[in-house]
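worker-3 :: picked Ubiquinone biosynthesis O-methyltransferase
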Amino acid sequence: MSQPNRLNLDPAEIAKFEELASRWWDRNSEFKPLHDINPLRVGFIDRIAQLAGKRVLDVGCGGGILSESMALRGAEVTGIDMGEAPLKVAKLHGLESGAQVRYQRITAEEMALEHPESFDIVTCMEMIEHVPDPASVVKACAQMVKPGGYLFLSTLNRNPKSYLFAILAAERLLKLVPQGTHEFSKFVKPAELAEWVRNSGLNLIEMTGLVYNPLTREYRLNPRDVDVNYMIACQKPEEM
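worker-3 :: tokens ->
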């Protein structure tokens, strides 16, 4: 019954991150942007949903950068991913850092079948632009949120400015990430993501952009600029 769900992954996308997995926790590697934006991401989540004591699922956790940060803020965190090498790196780093995270190799859709309405918070950051059917992932994530709980998503907008900044500048000019990391056609417009969220029964409560300044080489949150990287916070209505 769950067989079709297993197909919502792109082997080429997984291979990209498998190849780079050993450098996941090197703050000067290809993953530097993830390290740089992580304090902003975890701060955004914590401000809205208060992580301490919450049961959290991190979908597409990779090497565990966000997962560990949420665990260190007092959350009970499970991280899932379909890449074996990143999960191995995540587990090893957890042993070094002391962050308590449970990792599992499983798709969001399969996890949703096993654990419906089981988590106070579900996060899915920088992941939906790497799967064939992002709407399916959003639906699965929403299914796992408890009534009254929260879903946090981040991705890349699809427009000429995002192509210029995320592909031409970040990959080819500034070399912030490896060339070929992203495919512009898979970027997701905020209106599209908002529709998938609504169709999944959640309410979008906040949206903000992650803006990069090439002069200071720093990121900041700007709710008025979601042209390139952006995050949204959604909430599942309480049961009546």
